[in-house]
Amino acid sequence: MYKYKALSMVLFVCTLLTNTLLANENKVLVATIDGAINPVTTEYTLRVVRHAEEENYEALILQMDTPGGLLESTRLITKEFLATDVPVIVFVYPSGSRAASAGVFISYAAHFVAMAPSTNIGAAHPVTLQGGADSSQTAMMEKITNDAVAQIKGLAKKRGRNIEWAEKAVRESVSITADEALELNVINFISPNLDSLLSQLDGKITTIDDQEYILHTKNAAVVHMEMTWRDRVLSMITNPNIAYFLLMIAMWGIFFELSNPGSIFPGVIGAIALLIFLYSTQTLPVNYAGLALIVLAVVLFILEVKITSFGLLTLGGIVAMILGSLMLFETPDNILAPAMSISLSLVITFSIVTAILFLLAVGLALKARQRKVTTGAEGILGEKGIARSVITTSGQVQVHGEIWSAYAEEEIPAGSAIRILQVEGLKVKVEKV
After folding, report:
1. Nearest to 182 by CA among 198, 203, 157, 161
2. Alpha-carbon span 173 to 105, nearest angstrom
3. Could you tell me which of 85, 134, 79 has the C-alpha nearest to residue 106?
4. Which partner for 114 in 189, 198, 269, 351 could form a disulfide, CB atoms 3.0-4.6 Å apart?
């Protein structure tokens, strides 16, 4: 009896110790950013950071491969990294990845930075696609650049990284390899994979809330937190090229619905594409002058169908569409404009396809106007038939299976072939063929 009680007590203690050890097991949260920094990736990153805080993770590792992105989105991420009480490690991974432009700011805001071999970091100079070089724009770009320099220098000082190189990355767009970054104190480690990084981080000391924090990451449990399906869909929609594609589909659908009322299908597809595009404009830096030019292009295309201008309206619409497309997502709020702009090849392709479609539509409309009327009373003018009776001042003829009252200037025998000369209400004037 006592033997069973002792065994039960031992089992209870073992279970309690096991649960305690499992509860205290170190966990590392791993998230991934692959693409431009925009409001969707920002929302995802902030959610990951807060989850790591709530669940008391030992550290958060952000695997990153980015060409850059929006300035405001980048600021929100760096502010969250500076305020969190969980050590954040940016890992430029896998090989071939980059931390360009906005990625430099995010890396400098992290507690530790690691890069896989054959990766690069840099090229953080603010860029705008507005074009021109007037004094007002030059002054604006200088302000944006100075603001970005001040931000990167503050981050470098906070994390004890190379301030001089950080300023060069912003002012001169310099970019360096992983080996160079380690030598210049831009990053902390070169790690070929996640396991290697966890071993390198183990025992490292960082400062959180002015207190030293020792990382215990060796053999830590790794938990991955990927983007949800919603994040992925929204991220796809907010890609400028996808948004532009949706706008073109909306334009085509609405145009063909207005040109052929009652078609329904083009109108439904166009309306859906337009609504999705309007959603994407809430997260993309839309230039409304560009959008207005594209709307003008649609109006000109529609007018070409209604008014014969011999292609002048179509030509104006094509020019307006190309200019509007190039301007659509241009804004000085971009840290790296190409990451948030439309591919020039896509603009040219859609412009050519759109021009061909609308020229075909205009050609068909012109042919329809020139085609002989085939319905109603006018549709039988010039048509041939058979006299069903003798025709003088009255009689009957059969044309296309229909019986018409008829008259003729000269008598026409029954059974003769006749031609319709004139339609007067329900009576026709005929002649003998």
Report:
1. 161
2. 13
3. 79
4. 189
Residue indicated by tokens 């169908």? 305
Answer yes or no: pTM beyond 0.90.
Answer: no
Q: 156: closest CA among 90, 91, 101, 110?
A: 110
The closest of 221, 228, 235 to 47, measured between CA atoms, is: 228
Cα-based torsion angle of the residue sequence 292, 296, 299, 304 in order, rounded to the nearest 10 degrees: -170
H or E stretch covering 17: helix 2-23
Topology of domain 377-432, per CATH?
OB fold (Dihydrolipoamide Acetyltransferase, E2P) (2.40.50)
Backbone torsions φ then ψ of 418, nearest 5 degrees: -130, 165
Answer yes or no: is pLDDT of 333 > 50. no
Q: How far apart are CA 46 and CA 54, in angstroms?
A: 12
Q: Give me the residues paired with residue 206 across strands.
A: 213
Q: What is the pLDDT of residue 332?
A: 43
Please provide the size of the chain in residues. Answer: 433
What is the per-residue pLDDT across 238-282, written as a single tens digit (0 to 9) for each?
Answer: 778 888 888 888 888 887 787 677 777 888 888 888 888 877 766
Question: Chain-wide mean pLDDT for the chain?
Answer: 82
- Average pLDDT on 404-433 reads 86
Q: What is the CA radius of gyration of the chain?
A: 36
Residue written as token pair 């166009």: 270
pLDDT band at 57 (very low <50, low <70, confident <90, very high): very high
Across-strand partners of 188? none
User: What CA–CA distance (Å, rounded) separates 181 from 211?
Assistant: 27
* Residues 379-403 as b or e (16 or more Cβ within 10 Å = b): ebeeeebebbeebeeebebebeeee
Reading the block at residue 27, the tokens are 């966990």
> For the domain 2-228, what is the CATH code?
3.90.226.10
CA distances from 120 to 94, 104, 175 (A): 11, 10, 7
**Residue ranges of domains in the chain:** 2-228, 238-370, 377-432
Angle at 132 between CA 130 and CA 134, to 5 degrees: 115
Q: Which residue has the higher pLDDT, 277 or 311?
A: 277
- Mean pLDDT (whole number) for 206-218: 92
DSSP H helices, 212-287, are 229-237, 240-259, 265-280
> What is the percentage of the chain residues whose pLDDT exceeds 70?
81
Q: Are residues 247 and 294 in contact, defined by beta-carbon separation less than 8 angstroms?
A: yes
- Residue-by-residue DSSP string for 368-411: HHHSPP-STGGGGTT-EEEESS-BSSS-EEEETTEEEEEE-SS-
